[in-house]
Specification:
Blueprint (H helix, E strand, L loop, with lengths): L1 E5 L5 H14 L5 E5 L11 H23 L7 E4 L7 H6 L5 E3 H12 L3 E5 L5 H11 L5 E6 L14 H15 L4 E4 L8 H8 L3 E3 H14 L28
Parallel strand pairs: 1-2, 1-3, 3-4, 5-6, 5-7, 7-8
Helix pairs in contact: 1-8, 4-8
Bound molecules: [(4R)-2,5-dioxoimidazolidin-4-yl]acetic acid.
């Protein structure tokens, strides 16, 4: 099977890191590819960044579907590798393949190994985004707190920024203060840090990219794809005007 990881921000080094993390846990026979939109924010740290990045996600889904239709390697599942799960439901309308957001995936797995977990993300201003997702997905009562290490997302790409140390410190505070059994990492850019954080903190660490890859494999193996009955059916054909005319059919 072929799983396409979509990094909604446009930082190629983060896309590569996400691809490596996903491939590392993929089963034999699962091909993992990682892409990001050409256009969009270099990092996603606000409601505005999320909204703009969603269009890039949809372009990447359309591209994956075209590749499959044009004789390329069919994409059996997509992962939206940003903790805000930008464009998730709209992306599901565009394909019969499963589309999994890393936040949703991480929340699901965290509830299977603990009754209470906390989230550690990057900037405090984005905590509300995870809190909204917890509410929307029905996991709010499982999550004790959404915390932030107070690091810009791109500090995760800068070895000199001591981002790992700040994330570990916040995870240790969560372990001490929150009465939790597990921690969810709240950024696709943390995908390569799971082992080091687990070693340092001494709690199960749930990371969204790897969680989503394994859930995608399960769905594909069970022949479960996005339902086309109801609200996730393909969008109705219509004209799009102006710079979005390429979306029209
Ligand atoms: C992410 N931003 O996973 C989110 C994390 C965040 O560029 N990739 C980003 O802090 O919201």
């Amino acid at each position: 099977m072929h799983i396409r990881l979509i990094n909604p921000n446009t930082t190629a080094s983060m896309t590569a890191k996400i691809g490596v993390a996903g491939a590392r846990v993929a089963a034999a026979g699962t091909q993992v590819s990682a892409t990001n939109p050409d256009a969009g924010p270099v990092s996603i740290e606000s409601h505005f960044d999320e909204a703009v990045s969603a269009l890039g996600v949809l372009d990447e889904i359309r591209r994956g579907e075209r590749e499959g239709a044009d004789g390329g390697e069919r994409v059996d599942a997509y992962v939206i590798a940003c903790f805000g799960d930008p464009g998730l439901l709209a992306a599901r309308e565009l394909t019969t393949a499963p589309v999994i957001g890393i936040a949703e995936a991480a929340f699901h797995l965290a509830t299977l190994i603990s009754t209470r977990f906390s989230v550690v993300t990057t900037l405090g201003r984005t905590c509300i985004i995870a809190e909204h997702l917890l509410q929307n997905y029905g996991f709010a009562h499982h999550c004790r707190k959404v915390r932030a290490a107070e690091i810009p997302v791109l500090d995760l790409e800068d070895d000199g920024a001591c981002a790992l140390g700040r994330i570990i410190d916040e995870c240790r505070r969560a372990k001490t203060e929150d009465g939790i059994g597990a921690i969810v990492l709240g950024c696709g850019g943390m995908a390569d840090l799971t082992d080091e954080i687990r070693e340092a903190v001494g709690l199960p660490i749930v990371e969204g990219v790897t969680a989503a890859v394994k859930l995608a494999e399960s769905l594909v193996s069970l022949r479960l794809g996005t339902s086309k009955h109801g609200d996730l059916a393909f969008p109705r054909a219509k004209t799009f005007t102006g710079r979005f005319d390429y979306l029209g059919s």
